[in-house]
Write a structure and sequence with these properties.
With about 140 residues, this protein is of the alpha+beta class. The chain has four helices and seven strands; from the N terminus they run H-H-E-E-H-H-E-E-E-E-E.
Amino acid sequence: MSTSPAAHGTYRARFDEMYAWCEGLAADDATYSEDDVGRFWTDDARMITNGKLEATGIPALRKHFALFPQKYLRVEIRRPYHRYIEAGNTVVIEYEIIGEVRVGETAIATGETKQQHVRVVAIFNMRNGRIAEMREVA
């Protein structure tokens, strides 16, 4: 099985679109409605980070993504990804997130006060083209 970044895949464009949306959340005029979140996540989706349940369902995920404009001046999710692997409805992505933290705030993943730079490995379970579960280690 190849672990090099795949140029194509069933869900690849969807993840590129979602991560571009995530980067845009730090903009002052960003939108992060439940409908926006629902474009990428199922109604009962779960986000688990470092073994801790962070969010279940669209309202809780919206609350998570609402932290981006509050905490960051800029967010970059580096592409190409270090790894992108698809097997059926499972997607594994290894990538880096760099965030410039707003004055008086702390980074979500690291608690840093100036810049967050983390390497993430995330395993996604997909359902009907959307994320049903994300398990990540950051």
